[in-house]
Amino acid sequence: MTGDGTRVVRAGLPEPAAYEPALPGPVFAAHYHLPGDAVGPYTYGRDGNPTWTRLEQAIGELESPDEAAHTVAFASGMAAITAVLFSQLRAGDTVVLPNDGYQLLPAVRTRLESYDIEVRTAPTAHDAQLDVLDGARLLWIETPSNPGLDVCDIRRLAEAAHARGILVAVDNTLATPLGQRPLDLGADFSVASGTKALTGHGDVLLGYVTTRDAALADSVRLWRKTVGAIPGPMESWLAHRSLATLALRVRQQADGALALAEALRDRPEITGLRHPGLPTDPAHPLAVRQMRPGRFGCVVSFALPDHAHAERFLAALTLVDDATSFGGVRSTAERRARWGGDAVPEGFIRFSVGVEDPADLVADVLAALDSAARNG
């Protein structure tokens, strides 16, 4: 059995061939030679691509290293999310979503309801989705939640759902497969935006779905083909190349996020500080049981007194980009309320820790907080 650091370096690579690169370059092809009546593994560019295949194999090895799994790559995280929802749900079905998840879920809810699919919601914390499961077809879990960083018990929810014949999907974007393995905890689908920490450089849009059930994988793959939500070969190759450093990035980011959270605990202007790795965080006991040791994610969230205070803080940072998204090698922070769609205060900050030296990052953040307080 190999460790994560070894696995990410080798995942999805073909057998070594003399004078060939370890990771072959991207294959650009809309169609392939099809002699006679035989049907090979690649026929048309919307159906499959060798570059996708290698990436999908690699992600499957990370999400399910001890049991065979099927991964389907998509053009974005939202393409992956909607593929699961719309491939599995029909008119008259019921789905349970978190009411504190990713900000586009309300838009997804509106679309689902327009197709006569009932949508129920409940908070992530305290496994509240248990209370609205009866009669559902699919349970959607997001843990840790974005941006509030609440955690729910995947195994408990999955067991309760399966006892009722309900499928379970987990958005694993924030944790990454090195921080949490939903399939090992009972989920039917592990879904993620590869745009974030998986690729980690802020230059690729990508998503994926992994499942151990071949029939479920086929249904998701057919949805991808039908709507054309396919990843580009260059994006797929860049994502695969980036996986080699995933373990290094996840470790450094988790260490930096915990250091930042600890440094912010005693700041009087900060309220609602959250990070699952912080021993005082309400989600910490469950996160310790469910997530991999020391890999509690790169995101820290907290609130400053108001809109203006938050903007002064962001403007005073020198090592942090004022940008949306998370999981990149460069630290980013944003006043999340600017977008709407999240039930957060005007001064709420979602902070994504990069791979900078934690001491440098903490010093920059504390200096920016001092500046924001001084100039208020």
From TrEMBL:
SUPFAM superfamilies: PLP-dependent transferases (SSF53383). One of its GO terms (cellular component) is cytoplasm. Its EC number is 4.4.1.1. GO terms for molecular function: cystathionine gamma-lyase activity; pyridoxal phosphate binding. CDD domains: CGS_like. The keyword Lyase applies. It comes from the Bacteria. Keywords: Lyase, Pyridoxal phosphate. InterPro entries: Cys/Met-Metab_PyrdxlP-dep_enz, PyrdxlP-dep_Trfase, PyrdxlP-dep_Trfase_major, PyrdxlP-dep_Trfase_small. Its cofactor is pyridoxal 5'-phosphate. The modification N6-(pyridoxal phosphate)lysine is found at residue 196. One of its GO terms (biological process) is transsulfuration. PANTHER family: CYSTATHIONINE GAMMA-LYASE-RELATED (PTHR11808:SF85), TRANS-SULFURATION ENZYME FAMILY MEMBER (PTHR11808). NCBIfam families: PRK07582.1. Belongs to the trans-sulfuration enzymes family. This is Cystathionine gamma-lyase.
